[in-house]
Amino acid sequence: DTLGPALEAGLQPTIVVDRPVIQQILVKHGFPTGTVRIQSRVQSYEDIDGGGVIATLEDGTKCYADVLVGADGVWSQIRKNLHGLGEGAGGFAASGAAGGAIDDKEARKLARDTIKIAAQADRRYSGFTCYAALAPHRASNIETVSYQILLGEKKYFVSTDGGGERQQWFALIREPAGGVDEEATEENPTPKLDRLRREFASILTEGGDADGNQWDPFALELIDASAESDIKRRDLYDGAPLLATFDPQRLLSPWAKGSVALCGDAAHPMMPNLGQGGCQATEDAYRLGEELAGVTHTGQIEGALAKYSRVRVIRTSIIQGFAQLGSDLLVDFDLMMTIPFLGPFFLTMTQLSMPWILRFLYTPEF
């Protein structure tokens, strides 16, 4: 129960709602029937003289619209076209902390392809690969803890209440990009589970992990409650919302040009530590809607999209920086504290600034 304690403490409650549930609500009640099409990725687009855009889908279908919003993820094809990036900069690649619908065979191939795409797309490899699953399990400490981070050498483990007696967990391990797990076979049906059990060996396991660290048994509680097929692995990439540029147009309109704009991970991919990826995409969408709501003529669209991106880029840049810094410092905290003066100073400043940081993060600004 996270609602009762929050209300008793005078705090805003945290309510967990699955993204698929939100999507179904929007599809059912938010749009006219037939508005949403799946398997319709935009391959390219071109501007129409006088305003508007023609988008070409992967199957060759051409769609005409006043506005095109690229909310197509960290490897956005629309971003590739908008900023004139390398030919291999856009496409479908393995990304995202929570994983996706692709199977393990596809994920192994995409892990290697993603390195090439990232180089063209000017995305930064975070240094972490991420295993994630939604375990159908009532956590042993659910009555007292709804969010937990276990820190260790070169890795950390995060869990959060997923609602409905489920736990969402992430295991982030620092290692080079492009790594893959062995394919599951009859002789070795659980290669991902086997690795995770070694990486997060508990204090109940003799010897601990490869570095001699012994983990809280809670990590293995959730790992063991997960099926091999439910565990997804992704290398995590992020990148600056505003690329280094001297182009005046990019400075005045960071994520938009003409009738085209970017939104969500396509504009500002970030590490999952703060749980702000989806939140900031939602704020983007609200601000975008507010700006377009004031448009009365297609000639005003370019200005509205430019204002949207200028308003949003500062806040998302700050949050993205917090997420990058937080991820690196979580696994380097012990090392940081061994540095005279700097370690204690960092700890003190973190403690003093945390209330402001939390208010900034969790107070929506549209």
Principal-axes shape call: globular
Strand order across the biggest sheet? Answer: 6-7-8-5-9
Question: How large a portion of the residues is in β-strands, by DSSP E?
Answer: 15-25%
Distance between the termini: 29 Å
Total E-strand runs: 11
Largest sheet: 5 strands, antiparallel
Element order, helices and strands? HHEEEEHHEEEEHHEHEEHHH
Number of separate helices: 10
Overall mean pLDDT = 85
Are there runs of 5+ residues with pLDDT below 50, and where? none
User: Structural class of the helix and strand makeup?
Assistant: alpha+beta
Radius of gyration: 22 Å
User: Helical proportion?
Assistant: 25-40%
Structure commentary:
With 366 residues, this protein is α+β, with helices and mostly antiparallel strands. It is built from 10 helices and 11 strands. It has helices at residues 3-8, 19-29, 77-83, 104-121, 191-199, 217-224, 248-252, 277-293, 301-337, 342-362; strands spanning 42-47, 53-57, 62-65, 68-70, 124-135, 147-152, 155-161, 167-174, 232-238, 256-257, 260-262. The longest helix is centred in the last third of the chain and has 37 residues, at 301-337. The protein is globular, with a radius of gyration of 22 Å.
List the helices and strands and how they pair.
Blueprint (H helix, E strand, L loop, with lengths): L2 H6 L10 H11 L12 E6 L5 E5 L4 E4 L2 E3 L6 H7 L20 H18 L2 E12 L11 E6 L2 E7 L5 E8 L16 H9 L17 H8 L7 E7 L9 H5 L3 E2 L2 E3 L14 H17 L7 H37 L4 H21 L4
Parallel strand pairs: 4-11
Antiparallel strand pairs: 1-2, 2-3, 5-8, 5-9, 6-7, 7-8, 10-11
Helix pairs in contact: 8-9, 9-10
